[in-house]
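Worked Example 4.2. Consider the chain below.
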Amino acid sequence: MIAVKYFGAIAEKTKSQGEEISFSDLPLHQLLASLEQKYQLNQLSFSVAINQKIVQDTANYILKSNDIVALLPPFAGG
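Applying the procedure from the previous section yields the following structure tokens:
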């Protein structure tokens, strides 16, 4: 099971704070493509964090069981 959490504009677009996906050993790019298609996220800019660490290389990351994926909107400084 992989937990996906949504924040900011992404939570508004999905009308959800998150969901659980019943896959493991899933390529991150495949999960993101599925979510982008399901919720039309392609117009939104966001970062991806896995287990509270930002992931730059989404193309080669393999998700494991119990991973927590967070889709984070751009941060504003202040």
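The chain has a mean pLDDT of 92. Helices lie at 8-14, 28-39. Compare this with Example 4.1 before moving on.
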